[in-house]
Design a protein that fits this description.
246 residues; alpha/beta; Purple Acid Phosphatase, chain A, domain 2; five-stranded mixed β-sheet; four-stranded mixed β-sheet; 7 helices; 11 strands; globular
């Protein structure tokens, strides 16, 4: 047992490493999952695997929740997803086609949640999203949004694959004994559970889709040490089916 000096008198057996993918603006679901289901503690490490924004009703709420957690002393380690990248691509190269791609893939919902008309008005969230790395690593795991290109001598150099790759295949020799953990491509809960004992764990159950797809519509959190998978059904208002990008 360990006593946490800065955790309101909490006593914990062990800190946990918890991973969540593809929140996509589903802030009510996210908050219920971390506060009521997972019961996140300040000694835990929370890895968020990108696509925190777009499509869902409350991207602002998701980012505000992350800021709230960090300000309260929680260990939150986010990475960039392809949706964050779509927004940042426009900000770095403000051509209309880059804006149109982001808006068509859920960026309009992000602007609406902030009550603004243009991405240039998203000062604080843009600064945060721009600071996010493409991946994070521990001694036992590699965290990316989508996947990795194992044809490269250095798979960490393949930005497109890290943000967009959908194949679940891995080259274990290039993982150096670690397990790859990603989101991006929706999997059924059965597929997610089957991946838990493999070299590539995939954690996106398409929370943003809500009820239209019977095998999807949950936000999941995985405790890496124990293998416990926490599942929270989408509790947002009804959402439209997303388009081809995730």
């Amino acid at each position: 047992m360990r006593f946490c000096n800065d955790c309101d008198g909490e006593v914990m057996a062990n800190p946990r490493t918890i991973t969540i993918a593809d929140i996509h603006g589903c802030n009510r679901t996210f908050r219920r999952l971390i506060f009521e289901v997972v019961r996140l503690k300040k000694l835990d490490s929370l890895y968020l695997l990108g696509d925190m924004i777009d499509r869902g009703l409350d991207s602002k709420g998701v980012i505000d929740t992350i800021f709230e957690l960090q300000a309260s002393g929680y260990d939150v380690r986010s990475i960039r997803g392809n949706h964050e990248q779509l927004l940042l691509t426009y900000m770095r190269d403000p051509r209309y086609e880059n804006l149109a791609i982001w808006l068509a893939n859920g960026g309009d919902a992000t602007l609406e949640s902030y009550g603004v008309d243009t991405p240039e008005e998203l000062d604080e969230p843009l600064s945060y999203l721009n600071s996010l790395p493409l991946y994070r690593t521990t001694d036992s795991h590699i965290f990316v949004h989508a996947g990795m290109d194992f044809k490269l001598d250095d798979p960490f150099s393949g930005e497109d694959a890290i943000l967009w790759k959908r194949s679940g295949k891995v080259n274990e020799s290039k993982l150096n004994g670690r397990v790859l953990v990603s989101g991006h491509t929706p999997q059924s809960l059965l597929q997610i559970r089957r991946s838990l004992g493999r070299s590539h764990i995939r954690l996106d159950n398409g929370c943003v889709q809500g009820g239209p797809m019977p095998r999807l519509g949950n936000l999941v959190a995985l405790e890496l040490e124990s293998g416990v998978l926490h599942v929270q059904r989408n509790i947002e208002q009804p959402l439209e089916l997303p388009g081809k990008f995730w």
